[in-house]
């Protein structure tokens, strides 16, 4: 009969995985049997807490308050005995299992709410609280951390895609996670300039200035298309350009000192 607790354990565990932000942002990493085991582990924790609370309440709470019977176990046992023909001992076991199963779901719900409250206390802004969690979850991937830092601190980064297109910009949005993909499945950037890598020497050639448009343009990119990514420093790039052999071109890229704005000059 105690096998009936398996389903409440899995349900409560998956509820925590799917609604607690800390686990939800990592749920895409739990695949197959690992997701079942993770849900079972969290659900078992809810079951233990629910069982302890239920036993303590049954031990120390009076059977009645102001002549009102609050003995839920006895009432449920009587209801089960009258509704289904079973022995008194079996009815009592089923009553306890039912109460613990319901209490397990309540514990899972309170766990999620307390976790959300804890996050909001640490960070009053919801968006900031999400960023705080992202930084702890994505810190194990250099690419994820680079994209996150660009999103948080508005640091320009240079992305080289699989088709040799090159974009320099600031990450403006990270994709929302789901059951199969994480926060970084897609990103949106506000491009500053773009170009391509030469097929022969892979030298970066910029040919598009998005500042000319006069307004921000958002560009969505799937992370799976990113070949390389690096933080882009305009001062470093300018010094690097000075060290390169001069070429006779009609237009050159000009970047004022200590500036993130550039322009083309003849």
Give an account of the 3D structure.
The protein is an alpha+beta fold and 266 residues long. It has two domains: 2-122, no CATH class; 135-232, SH3 type barrels (Roll). The chain is built from eight helices and ten strands. Strands 3, 4, 5, 6, 7 and 8 form a six-stranded antiparallel beta sheet that branches. A two-stranded antiparallel sheet has the order 1-2. Strands 9-10 form a two-stranded antiparallel sheet. Helix 1 packs across helix 3 (33-60) and helix 4 packs across helix 5. The longest helix has 35 residues, at 88-122. The chain is elongated and about 95 Å long. The protein starts with 5 loop residues before the first helix and ends with a strand. The mean pLDDT is 79.
> H/E element string?
HHHEEHHHHEEEEEEHEE
Q: If you average the pLDDT, what whole number results?
A: 79
Number of helices: 8
Beta-strand content: 15-25%
The total strand number stands at 10
Estimate percent helicity: 40-55%
Find the structural class using helix and strand composition.
alpha+beta
Detail the poorly predicted runs: none
Q: Distance between the terminal alpha carbons, to the nearest Å?
A: 84 Å
Overall form: elongated
Major sheet details: 6 strands, antiparallel
Task: Count up the domains.
Answer: 2
């Amino acid at each position: 009969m105690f096998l009936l607790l398996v389903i409440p354990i899995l349900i409560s565990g998956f509820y925590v995985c799917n609604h607690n932000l800390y686990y939800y942002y990592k749920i895409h990493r739990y695949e197959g049997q690992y997701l079942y085991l993770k849900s079972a582990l969290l659900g078992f924790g809810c079951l233990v807490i629910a069982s302890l609370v239920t036993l303590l309440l049954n031990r120390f709470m009076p059977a009645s308050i102001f002549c009102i019977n609050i003995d839920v176990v006895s009432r449920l046992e009587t209801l089960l005995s009258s509704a289904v023909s079973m022995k008194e001992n079996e009815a009592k076991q089923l009553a306890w299992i039912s109460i613990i199963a319901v209490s397990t779901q309540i514990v899972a719900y309170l766990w999620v709410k307390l976790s959300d409250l804890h996050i909001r206390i640490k960070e009053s802004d919801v968006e900031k609280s999400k960023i705080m969690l992202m930084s702890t979850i994505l810190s194990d991937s250099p690419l994820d951390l680079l994209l996150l830092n660009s999103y948080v601190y508005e640091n320009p980064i240079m992305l080289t895609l699989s088709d040799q297109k090159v974009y320099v910009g600031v990450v403006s949005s990270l994709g929302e996670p789901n059951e199969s993909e994480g926060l970084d499945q897609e990103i949106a950037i506000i491009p500053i300039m773009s170009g391509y890598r030469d097929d022969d020497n892979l030298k970066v050639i910029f040919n598009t200035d998005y500042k000319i448009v006069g307004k921000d343009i958002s560009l969505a990119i799937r992370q799976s298309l990113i070949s390389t990514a690096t933080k882009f420093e305009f001062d470093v790039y300018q010094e690097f350009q000075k060290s390169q052999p001069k070429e006779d071109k009609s237009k050159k890229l000009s970047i004022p000192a200590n500036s993130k704005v550039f322009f083309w000059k003849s």
